[in-house]
Amino acid sequence: MIILEDAFWSAFAALGFAMLFNVPRRTLIACAFAGAIGHASRTLLIQSIGLTIETATFVAAALVGFLGTYLAKHLRAPSLIFTVTGVIPMVPGLFAYTAMLRFLELSLGTGDETILQEAMVYFIRTMLILGALALGISLPRLLFLRRRPVV
Prior knowledge:
Layout: H1 2-20, H2 28-49, H3 53-75, H4 79-87, H5 93-107, H6 113-144
């Protein structure tokens, strides 16, 4: 039940960003579907298999990348329309916000060594999640859409 709720709100977020990015109307439902599949699969991988958020994000982003490639061919639209809006709900806002707050505490002089360690952990996790998103949505293009073979 939680997965369906997660999918619904993720679809809602992806749809909002698709409208913000002014994608064609005929692709809006597919963009919402990509967002729902991506975030719900990440949640499912974390809760049922026990993957870390970074690994689950990579797998879910790759799934969105393959789905975006498929939808692009069938709806005759660029795959970036589906992949970018599909991974928007997985952007690590809380991790980035927490890292920023911890660094702010350090700059104000109210933090200690543990605050620095916590800030660095949140910063590194944010960067790993963003890297997983970028690599995941690029994976189908890297594997299948080469113009010439690698020698």
